TrEMBL record:
It holds the Pfam family ABC_tran. Belongs to the ABC transporter superfamily. InterPro entries: AAA+_ATPase, ABC_transporter-like_ATP-bd, ABC_transporter-like_CS, P-loop_NTPase. It comes from Actinoplanes auranticolor. The keyword Chaperone does not apply. This is ABC transporter domain-containing protein. GO terms for molecular function: ATP binding; ATP hydrolysis activity. The keyword Nucleotide-binding applies. Keywords: ATP-binding, Nucleotide-binding, Transport. Residues 6-214 form the ABC transporter domain.
Length: 215
């Protein structure tokens, strides 16, 4: 049976007595790119955290490729998310983090183009630095480089353009475009309409998600 990449039904989340998401519905077919937009505090990150299984909703159902999120190794093999900031391994350099990601996914770093990826993301000259010593934009570049380095079927990204300079935004938009062209699925939140369009995603307003499916 064919499943959507993401199926969200009647999702509700409150913080204390404040409802943030109320009966949110969202369908993202396999191979589609959806960018959720909306004002600060409207609940985009909350939605992405729930879809990535990093937060348990109060009510509703979520299926990722037909199964509940986060419950199996298959989920984490298929899904890459940058919704939560990464935890860096103490004492490992940026390149060693990239090597770790490759080897954990059964890839030879050279065959996976690890050095080329670090170079494309402009961090080759910082590859021997430990990530905490990088600038906030360089950390974001490394985080995204690691996300693109490993194989996946679904990217869940919270404002990937954040802290990137224009050249970095263009690079990431191009890579997302290629990822979608190769059959991958993208769910992201962004405040940058031009970035979302360049990435090839369809923009969906968070305010409409209680009534509108993104098809
Ligand atoms: N852990 C939490 N505890 C209490 N309130 C929270 C928590 N996380 C988020 N909120 C509140 O929920 C609302 C939605 O937050 P969320 O981060 O999902 O919005 P957002 O649309 O991603 O915002 P932004 O565009 O600023 O990133 C906000 O009012 C926020 O203050």
């Amino acid at each position: 049976m064919d499943h959507s990449a993401i199926e969200v039904r009647d999702l509700s989340v409150s913080y204390g007595s404040t409802p943030v998401l109320v009966d949110v519905r969202l369908t993202v077919p396999v191979g589609a790119g959806v960018c959720v937009i909306g004002e600060n505090g409207i609940g985009k990150s909350t939605l992405l955290r729930c879809v990535a299984s990093l937060q348990r909703p109060d009510a509703g159902e979520i299926e990722i490729f037909g199964a509940p999120p986060g419950s199996t190794p298959e989920f984490w093999r298929a899904v890459v998310t940058t919704v939560e900031p990464p935890t860096w391994y103490p004492g490992l350099t940026a390149r060693e983090h990239a090597e770790l990601v490759c080897r954990a996914h059964g890839l030879d770093p050279a065959a996976a183009g690890m050095d080329e990826t670090l170079d494309r993301f402009g961090i080759a000259s910082h590859a021997d630095a430990i990530p905490p010593s990088l600038s906030s934009g360089q950390k974001q570049r490394l985080t995204l480089a690691l996300a693109f380095l490993r194989p996946s079927r679904l990217l869940i990204l919270d404002e990937p353009e954040q802290r990137l300079d224009p050249e970095g935004r263009a690079l990431v938009a191009g890579l997302l475009h290629d990822y979608l062209a190769d059959g991958g699925t993208v769910l992201m939140a962004s405040h940058d309409d031009a970035f979302a369009a360049a990435a090839g995603t369809t923009t969906v307003s968070m305010a409409d998600l209680h009534t509108v499916d993104a098809q």
